[in-house]
Amino acid sequence: MSIFKACDIRGVYPGERDEPAADAIGSAAGEMLDGGDCVLAGDVRQSTPALKEAVRRGLTRAGARVMDVGIVPTPAACWARRRFGARGLVVVTASHNPPQYNGMKLMLGDLPVTPEDMEELQARAEEHRRMGPVASASAPGATTALDVKADYLAWLAGRFAGTGRGRKALVDAGNGCASEWAPAAFRAADYEVEELFCRPDGRFPNRSPNPSRPEAVAAASRRVRDAGADFGVCFDGDADRAVFLDENGNFVDAEQALILLARRVLADEPGAGVVYDLKSTRVVPREVERAGGRPIMERSGYAFIKRRLIREDAALAGEASGHFFFRELGGDDGIYAALRMGELIAEAGRPFSELLASAPPYHISQDIRVPCPSGRAAQIVEGLASRFADRPQDRTDGVRVEFDGGWALCRPSVTEPAVTVRVEGDTAERMEELRNAFLDALRRLRGA
Fold first, then answer.
1. What is the rounded (10 degree) CA torsion for 88, 91, 97, 100?
2. CA 177 to CA 70: how far, in whole Å?
3. How is domain 363-447 classified at the CATH fold level?
4. d(Cα 448, Cα 445) in Å, to the nearest integer?
């Protein structure tokens, strides 16, 4: 599969992602920025420094003025872009992927990149790869090294100081970018902090950099209980996702967290928009409407949801993977989201588990990845659309089929040769029934 995905770049290092490719991509991005200012950052992976330096060379060769903020959480790089008014952003990261991967997240203007932007970036990068490292600007750009840690943490402290007084939080950084940042941010908000895996290590030796499944954060769950914490938060590799645990160490679905955040935001701003991803339970839009908000469904993917948040001037957005977006940020930030959740719990004066219990129950599957031959994913999606043509469908991303008492979604994976399925039912039994029927139809198509 290509390393160029719908809204970012991912691949195995060095087999799919190497320094010459990073240099070419940097040159292509610099051209698309027309030599403007660009914030450059990277995550803690062992391959990041070499790839980041290659990107820097490509950017400056294309005339870009690079502001290198170093190895930082992706949200801190986004904050720096806003603070310095830069047009571009390149973060060398593979986010939640395993340690052998690396990639890039980019902004090439005021809005997140689109699939069309990625196609242009790929075409330009491939041309630069054929040409070799040749300057494409009349004059080379320059690089300025900047340290933004103190200012970013001061900004968070100014917003959340005192909100954690008398409370204890478990912070699991997973040895990723949040390691030396999130504990400091929580302490500045007056929390007692219990740290877990808060030493940066790009090998991710203690758990997966993807905390979105309960088994990935089992150690954090035990530590929350043992430490008597009021709640726990687990970050992904680049700290733009936050996954929560209640005071009993129970895993909190992202949809549950979004419902609580939406209620709080809408109490201050009735009628505001809340963007949610089409993989989310139907309880999310119902609860947004019940709280006086305007639910807005968008396709999965942080860039798509962030773009919709900005265009709709929505107050809040959430993705089933654990990204939370806020209007005041113009995007997502796992550390900010965690502090907002802590503030919400403190304001309520009730245990986190009680707040979560106030959300209606739902019955939804985890993502089910079904391998399929390369190039067959789109055909399988179209086949399912034809198979269930008598049912209402949404084609925002793949095909989402509405059934009596539930729905089923099939969409092509952007990271591997597979399709991703998710199913919801009004009852657990209905969910199982729909899942079995939908997967049976999918497998028949896959084998056809």
1. 130
2. 11
3. TATA-Binding Protein (3.30.310)
4. 5
Cα distance between residue 281 and residue 256, in whole Å = 10
**How many Cα neighbours within 13 Å face the side chain of 427?**
4
pLDDT tens digit sequence for 48-94: 999 999 999 999 999 999 999 999 999 999 999 999 999 999 999 99
Annotation: CATH topology of 150-252: Alpha-D-Glucose-1,6-Bisphosphate; Chain A, domain 3 (3.40.120)
To the question of domain 256-334+344-357 being in CATH 3.40.120.10, the answer is: yes
| pLDDT 10s digits, 363-397 | 999 999 999 876 799 999 999 999 999 999 999 99
Q: In whole angstroms, what separates CA 118 from the centre of its chain?
A: 18
Told to judge if 179 belongs to the known catalytic residues of this protein, a careful annotator would answer no
CATH number of 9-147: 3.40.120.10
Q: Looking at residue 428, what DSSP letter applies?
A: H
Question: Which residues of the chain are in CATH 3.30.310.50 domains?
Answer: 363-447
**b (16+ CB within 10 A) / e for 230-260:** bbbbbbbbbbbbbbbbbbebbbbbbbbbbbb
Helices (H), 67-211: 74-84, 115-131, 149-160, 182-188
Note whether 61 and 125 are within 8 A (CB): no
Asked if the bond preceding 200 is cis, omega within 30° of 0, the reply is no
In the chain, CATH 3.40.120.10 sits at 9-147, 150-252, 256-334+344-357
Q: Which of 27, 47, 95, 280 is catalytic?
A: 95
CA distance 135 to 188: 45
DSSP letter string over 54-96?
HHHHHHHHTT-EEEEEEE--HHHHHHHHHHHT-SEEEEE--TT
pLDDT tier, 414 (very low <50, low <70, confident <90, very high otherwise)? confident
